[in-house]
Specification:
The structure holds 3 protein chains of 3 kinds. Helices cover 42% and strands 16% of the residues of chain A. In chain A, the strands form 2 sheets. In chain A, strands 7-6-8-9-10-11-12 form a 7-stranded mixed β-sheet, with helices on both faces. Chain A has a 5-stranded parallel β-sheet with strand order 2-1-3-4-5, with helices on both faces. In chain A, β11 and β12 form a beta hairpin. In chain B, 59% of the residues lie in helices and 11% in strands. Chain C is built from 11 helices and 2 strands. The C terminus of chain C is likely disordered. Chain C has a two-stranded antiparallel ribbon. The radius of gyration of chain C is 19 Å and the shape is globular. Classes of the chains: A alpha/beta, B alpha/beta, C mainly alpha. Chains in contact: A-B, A-C, B-C.
């Protein structure tokens, strides 16, 4: 008897805990705020918050103030629970999220069944949009876009600078063996083979590793010209250090986001070692602002609000995606799911007009077909954009050229 | 609850409570559990909210997982931190088969079958390991499974995981409605609870707990300890796999790192531990308490600072463990009336004397000695360079009491260990005549128990966490599979051994004399044909010795043959029909008690050469 | 051939890394008989302390040892006194495992709360300089770890064998009741042992911090391997743990190079399971340590 009382109290508490302010229009912000993915989850959510602030400062959406209700998607079961909580108790009009692909896949199924629009602003796995969901839209570029751009960069820039044809380039692909690394690596292999690159080694490893010397030796022995690594912070640092210490100096190292886009990685590895390392990721901050207008305003607002510089491009991409959606919502009437879907379908933002550079138009599977990544290079301890040329602030330096 | 109090003071009324089981629940508790279960099913329906449904589905899922885990971790006491293996197998089987167009209702059983095979294969070699070592081995297996699931992409989809096609309806276990998933989760939990409850109330449960508490004593009581634990692991794995399949359908998406997950394994075990290890409803209570608390903490703290929620959760666990080391069930039991120890002891002393005086049958005419029932030939055993048993041969006849004496270190207990299968001899044979009249050569403790050889241990080996009644029931189950019958026999034996007043007391609370009697009672409940008693009279007082001697005559007269290792000479002299003296692993004398003690070689063995010369 | 030598060298240096993390765990596991799941988090705490002291005071990471080791000794002693000791006589010894799991969760999240999930870099202070030794390349910092792990193992062996306290510790490990009868304060010995075990982790963290970036989860990278090493070495055998570390380091390195990088864990845990099942006393354990195995 006692226990059922306890559980009743618990339910009462749960109902109270949904503290989203009534009135106004509520959107869910579903990110991993605790656990292993907390850092970039939080960073992503900041972008969404800044977009909401900006919209509210301009009078809100359809005259209503936008309020965010946070949900913590710490694991897949939680992602489902929090999505349900946001929908049923938070009464959100739509959900924005999620940074992690696995959480996004789990939570968006709930939204689909409940008929609530779900806007993915940061998860890169193909499967997120590959499911014929009606209510899911994705604004950001994907793992496939990343791999495609990396291969494109090798063929059009790196190869010519090394005076080598694609088939003469020996490529080694290494990746952390979770979903993120695996899906990027598989696309790298696919597009690399199509471009006739000579892929000599492809190896996964657990991200929680303390030693990568065997991998480094393997790559060194095979005389790999270009290493493609898709990794988190710790393993990026480990590989770059151990490669350097083993005297392994490939002509190019190209990272796939993650640790490669993080300043602490460069600081840990040492700026001299990091010099010249390439990276393909979401739009970052050292970019030609004629291609990304309003980027500087975003950075200024971010610094003012959080008292630090953005820690990665995740906030920027979430910001740009959220802003595009919110602005589109402002052009329609009502917040019913169908109204929102109609607004999303009508989104049409041209490339080169947003703070991330890429434009917005939803195509097949509600994926933003204008989304693209950018190529960056570590130069002088800074991650500067070098590809595509329209966005570049500095030329790509390969082999001293 | 007042019944229990009465039982402890007035032994005679204990039979009134015969229908009631000891670790089941009083009527009040049973109603409480029924109300709790009803609340789990009805609350979400009444509130009707999606999120509340999710919380309760989560409660059901973890309730089922923890209850299933408890069969291995609690009953059998094998701390498995690899249960996510079985959960993962169920999940993958469900999704892989569903994507081939096979309903998860079938996939569930395929998953369970695979899980059972895996469980048996990996547990069998690990059962030699105890405590932390077993836990570490299961963690290692879990890591291996996770990495293999990542590696074999064709089957599992690798790191990117596997998704189900969204096909709705009962046949696919995926729903647009809120209620059906709750109904299925609740049903799974109910089935798991029912099986856990059934096991705990029946022979298998007693055997598991006995094995957990004292493996050797359980073996002596005829328990095939490996087999019962394998059954436990198999049942637990199958139930866990069922839940895995359903949860995969509910999540619609699985990946190796989420299903073959050490944190998940730890969480499942943690719920059971906090609720109360080895109890039927403890794990469920742990889940019912912790899942909402963790949801609340997430809601309140999650938004404030990264890590705060996890920090509070970790600290809560530590505090919980520190202040409720026996779990919620242990905590709740403190409120039940405990047997009043001093009074019980006094009553018991009175009662046991009374029992023996009153209940002892009038001295019957002793039946004549029968044929040989146990024949020992040329037993040899070396420990390293030490020749502990040297060409020992003797035989035991039906209805005979054979005394086995000798100085410390003579090898008496070693001989006993070979006579009961606990130690394999280097050479020689032990033959026991079965009820079929033929001689057999049993090898394992289970074989010996099966043919009717029962033994006690020199160092008492009670099943400490079980009550006296349950201790004796473990023995009684050897001949009687039905719990009710076993309970009756246990009670009868307990009263005969003067343990009646303590029936519902935990064995750990008994005095040394009580424990010795319990040791004998447990063997007696097995209704053995040959009884090996290892120093049952050592360390008990004079009155008890006399009582024990009477008891042994009674046992003998009921047709049981006895071999007794004994140092209490009074007992040896009056009890034994024949005495064998063992010294340095060799038989140095054999014969009538009075002849043997006068034998100079025996005196020399006990007291040294000088003493013999002095006497001469 | 050169490559093979390099792989072996890498394996041995990795083994030294595991060894220095495991010495303290061996002591705690072998003597207090507690599986300390928070061991990795002790390492994490030590590495953050090193990071803080080095950055705030601008001193060489190795100099922080004078502060880090006593602080971890205190942390270990407090853990034993207020977390493990109250549970020493609990009905179920599994309960201590869960107490340490709770501690581990709390410490990881505390670090997350204070330092965030970013990696924290202790200055390398010249410890990542490669040295060419014949055909193989190694780092100065790795050599320091190798030297320190050997020194720690030898020192611990000496401490346990020759000093009064060390003998008391061994007496408690062999027979708690008998030691108590001989007037040894068992609870105090346990507190001391846990403290020394944690202090060993302090030494490890000072050496590791300059080589590996610190993060709240860094402990989880080491803890499972450390358990593997301790069990392989034989319960409580410090020398055994050292050799076990070398074996695991070599398996890790060789399988990573010659089999496949993503199957290294299978090789490590597979070997661990085979040895545990076939030879439960560990590779170098003696038969007297078999209380955890059924006959």
């Amino acid at each position: 008897m006692k226990l059922s009382l306890i559980s009743k109290l618990a339910i009462a508490g749960l109902l109270l805990s949904s503290t989203a302010v009534k009135a106004d229009v509520v959107f869910g912000a579903l990110y991993p705020f605790s656990g292993q993915l907390a850092l970039l989850g939080e960073e992503s959510a900041r972008g969404l918050e800044i977009a909401v602030d900006e919209i509210n400062a301009a009078g809100g959406v359809q005259g209503q103030k936008v309020v965010l209700a946070r949900g913590d998607a710490v694991d897949n079961n939680q992602a489902i629970g929090e999505a349900r909580r946001l929908i049923s108790i938070g009464k959100v009009a739509a959900i924005f999220g999620t940074y992690s692909s696995a959480r996004s896949i789990a939570a968006s199924q709930v939204a689909e069944v409940s008929g609530i629009p779900y806007f993915e602003l940061g998860a890169v796995a193909d499967e997120v949009t590959g499911r014929n969901l009606k209510y899911l839209y994705r604004t950001n570029p994907t793992a496939e876009d990343m791999a495609k751009l990396i291969v494109e960069m090798i063929v059009t820039k790196v190869g010519p600078k090394l005076n080598k044809k694609p088939e003469e380039l020996k490529i080694g692909i290494i990746y952390e063996d979770s979903s993120y690394g695996t899906s990027v690596a598989n696309h790298q292999k696919k597009y690399g083979s199509e471009a006739k690159l000579n892929i000599v080694s492809m190896q996964g490893y657990p991200a929680a590793t303390v030693d990568m010397s065997s991998l480094v030796l393997d790559l060194k022995q095979r005389n790999v010209d270009i290493v493609l690594q898709t990794s988190y912070s710790n393993d990026s640092v480990l590989f770059l250090r151990q490669a350097n210490e083993a005297g392994f100096k490939p002509a190019a190292i190209i990272g796939g986001g993650g640790g490669y886009s993080m300043q602490p990685t460069a600081d840990a590895v040492g700026h001299d070692v990091m010099e010249g390392v390439l990276d393909v990721d979401f739009t970052q901050y050292l970019v030609n602002t004629s291609f990304t207008p309003k980027l500087e305003e975003f950075v200024a607002t971010y610094k003012k609000k959080y008292n630090e510089s953005p820690r990665s491009g995740h906030s920027l991409n979430n910001y740009a995606g959220a802003l595009a959606i919110l602005q589109a919502l402002n052009k329609t009437k009502g917040f019913k799911p169908d109204d929102i879907l109609k607004a999303a379908a009508a989104v049409d933002v041209a490339q080169g007009t947003t703070s991330v550079g890429y434009g917005f138009k939803f195509g097949k599977n509600n994926q933003n077909e204008r989304a693209s990544m950018m190529g960056m290079q570590w130069q002088g301890g800074k991650l500067v954009t070098v590809y595509p040329d329209a966005a570049a602030v500095a030329p790509m330096k390969i082999g001293g050229k | 609850m007042t019944d229990t109090a009465k039982v402890t003071t007035v032994p005679a009324t204990s039979s009134l409570a015969s229908g009631e089981s000891t670790h089941g629940f009083g009527r009040g508790a049973a109603y409480g559990i029924a109300a709790l279960l009803a609340a789990i099913l009805l609350l979400p329906v009444l509130i009707g909210d999606d999120f509340v449904y999710h919380v309760f589905i989560t409660i059901c899922i973890f309730g089922a997982l923890s209850t299933a885990w408890n069969i291995v971790g609690g009953y059998a006491g094998q701390l498995s931190l690899g249960h996510a293996i079985f959960y993962g197998i169920g999940a993958y089987a469900g999704i892989i088969l569903m994507n081939m167009g096979i309903s998860p209702w079938l996939g569930m059983f395929v998953g369970a079958a695979v899980a059972v095979i895996v469980a048996v294969v990996i547990s069998y070699p690990c059962f030699r390991l105890h405590g932390a070592f077993f836990a570490l081995a299961t963690i290692a297996f879990l890591e291996v499974f996770r990495v293999l699931a990542l590696h074999f992409r064709d089957l599992t989809g690798g790191a990117t995981g596997k998704m189900i096609a969204l096909k709705f309806g009962w046949e696919w276990m995926v729903f647009r409605e809120k209620f059906p998933p709750l109904a299925i989760a609740f049903g799974l939990m109910l089935v798991t609870l029912a099986i856990a409850w059934w096991m705990r109330e029946h022979r298998i449960g007693f055997y598991l707990v006995a094995t957990r508490e004292r493996e050797s004593a359980a073996k002596a009581a005829g328990v095939n300890t490996v087999k019962v634990r394998l059954i436990a692991v198999a049942v637990s794995a199958a139930l866990t796999a069922f839940v895995g399949t359903f949860h995969a359908m509910y999540l619609t998406f699985i990946e190796p790192s989420a299903v073959f997950s050490l944190p998940l394994s730890i969480q499942i075990a943690m719920f059971a531990l906090i609720g109360g290890l080895g109890t039927v409803v403890g794990p469920l209570l742990g889940v019912v308490l912790l899942v909402p608390v963790s949801e609340l903490a997430r809601g309140w703290l999650g938004a404030h600072a990264v890590g705060l929620h996890g920090f509070v959760y970790g600290v809560t666990l530590v505090v919980f463990v520190l202040f409720m080391p026996n779990g919620l069930m242990g905590f709740l039991q403190r409120f039940r009336k405990q047997p009043d120890a001093p009074r019980a002891v006094a009553a018991a002393a009175a009662a046991s004397t009374a029992n023996i005086i009153n209940e002892a049958p009038p001295p019957e005419k002793r039946p004549p000695l029968g044929n040989e029932i146990m024949v020992v030939e040329n037993l040899d055993k070396h420990f390293g360079g030490l020749h502990v048993t040297n060409n020992v041969s003797f035989s035991l006849r039906e209805g005979e009491i054979l005394g086995l004496i000798g100085p410390n270190g003579a090898g008496k207990t070693t001989v006993f260990n070979m006579l009961s299968g606990f130690l394999a001899q280097d050479s020689g044979t032990v033959k026991v005549r079965g009820t079929d009249g033929q001689f057999h050569t049993p090898l394992t403790p289970t074989d010996f128990a099966a043919i009717g050889v029962g033994r006690t241990f020199q160092i008492v080996q009670p099943f400490a966490a079980m009550t006296v009644e349950e201790n004796i029931m473990v023995g009684a189950f050897h001949r009687h599979h039905d719990a009710k019958v076993a309970r009756e026999i246990a009670r009868e034996t307990a009263h005969r051994m003067g343990l009646g007043p303590w029936l519902n007391a935990e064995a750990r609370g008994l005095t040394i004399g009580g424990l010795k009697r319990l040791e004998v009672a447990r063997v007696m409940a097995m209704q053995p044909r040959v009884l090996l008693l290892d120093e049952v009279m050592a360390g008990i007082n004079q009155t008890d010795v006399r009582r024990a001697i009477d008891l042994m005559f009674q046992i003998r007269d009921s047709g049981v043959s006895i071999i007794a290792i004994e140092h209490v000479m009074q007992a040896v002299m009056s009890l034994s029909d024949r005495v064998i003296v063992l010294n340095s692993g060799q038989i140095i004398a054999e014969g009538k008690p009075h002849d043997v003690v006068r034998d100079p070689t025996v005196v020399e063995a006990y007291l040294g050469k000088e003493f013999v010369h002095a006497q001469a | 051939m050169d490559t093979f030598l390099q792989v072996v060298a890498n394996g041995l240096l990795l083994g030294a890394l595991f060894a220095i993390v495991s010495v303290g765990l061996t002591l705690i596991f072998g003597i207090v008989k507690v599986v300390n799941f928070a061991h990795g988090e002790f390492l994490m705490v030590g590495m953050y302390l090193t990071y803080l002291l080095t950055n705030k005071l601008g001193i060489h990471p190795f100099a922080t040892i004078i502060a880090v080791v006593p602080l971890l000794l205190l942390l270990g002693a407090l853990t034993q006194r207020f977390l493990i000791q109250p549970l020493m006589n609990a009905r179920d010894d599994h309960i201590q495992i869960f107490a340490t799991v709770g501690l581990s969760t709390a410490l990881i999240n505390l670090a997350l709360l204070i330092f965030g999930a970013d990696i924290a870099n202790t200055p390398q202070s010249g410890l990542r300089v490669p040295i060419q030794l014949g055909p193989i390349r190694v780092l100065t910092g790795q050599l320091c770890i190798l030297a320190a792990s050997i020194a720690l193992v030898v020192g611990m062996q000496y401490f346990l064998a020759k000093t009064q306290t060390g003998r008391a510790i061994r007496a408690v490990a062999q027979n708690r009741a008998a030691a108590q009868l001989m007037g040894i304060n068992v609870n105090w010995i346990y507190i001391l042992t846990f403290g020394i075990g944690a202090a060993c982790v302090g030494v490890a963290s000072v050496l590791i911090a300059p080589l590996y970036p610190t993060s709240p989860n860094i402990g989880t990278y080491f803890v499972l391997t450390a358990f593997v090493v301790v069990v392989l070495g034989g319960l409580g055998s410090i020398g055994g743990a050292f050799l076990g570390s070398m074996v695991i380091g070599l398996i890790d390195s060789l399988s990573g190079f010659y089999i496949s990088s993503d199957l290294r864990e299978v090789a490590v845990f597979g070997v661990f399971l085979i040895i545990l099942i076939l030879r439960p006393s560990g590779l170098f354990g003696t038969r007297q340590n078999l209380s955890h195995v059924s006959p």
